[in-house]
Amino acid sequence: MADRRRSTPPGFRPPEGSPTASGPSDDVTAHDVHRRIVLEADPTAVWRALTDPDELGAWWGEGSRLDATPGGEGRFEEDGEPVRLARVVEVRPERRLILDWWPEDPEVDEPATRVTIELVPCPFGTIVTVLECALLDLSELPVLVAPRPTFLAPAPAPWWRGRALAGV
Amino acid sequence: MKPAQHRPDAGEVLGALGDPTRRAVLQAVAEGGPLTATELAGPTGITRQAVSKHLAVLEQAGLVQVERIGREARYQVVPGSLDPAAAWLDRVGAAWDRRLALLRRHLADG
Fold it and tell me: Which residue, A49, A61, A132, A155, has fewest beta-carbon neighbours within 10 Å?
């Protein structure tokens, strides 16, 4: 039986202790996460930490690697998270890195997402902005529709399949 | 027709949000529901037919429910149905907080 009272939808509150979280808390259609911090290192050093295999493995998680070239592949391993495979969408060295990633294990029910990392030099070092957004439109996921002759990793988990979403 | 009585997971919610017009319809229902398709068509600037189509998808995904009184059908958000997507967003945000803290420490040590 439906309730005649006005429904109060659950808000999308930023996690506690995350002053950099953004976005209106009452947007029930939110599908992205946004973070911004300032690091006391120049963009060259930050970029190296993101793309050099030894450096990436040192802080993200051993075994993580990323070929930071357009179409390059990546693999991310870290504590408490599923292993993720990635494909680079766009690269502007020391400025911008865009990649799509998804859990390696198709049993993990998490959507494929697009991660955009931007580095902006500032007097104190580097402003790092991270935007992770669910890939809502199939056409946004080139790895699914483009030929993948050299891509040996499995395709993203088809999380939208089998859903009762006629017309999507 | 009875609405689907299941708890959608994050993938389902996000999948249903895959259309900007549908996002606008859901937002309007969340803010002003229960509302009829006609009432929703006004403020969202979408035809009643298009609103009905999007409401059907949202209902099938378990995000909105309909109450019919006579010939009137009123839609409102299913309480809790958006929680899995909210929880997913929280997890993604927490993961980045952790990664960025690790990156900061790594750069300080280097």
Answer: A155
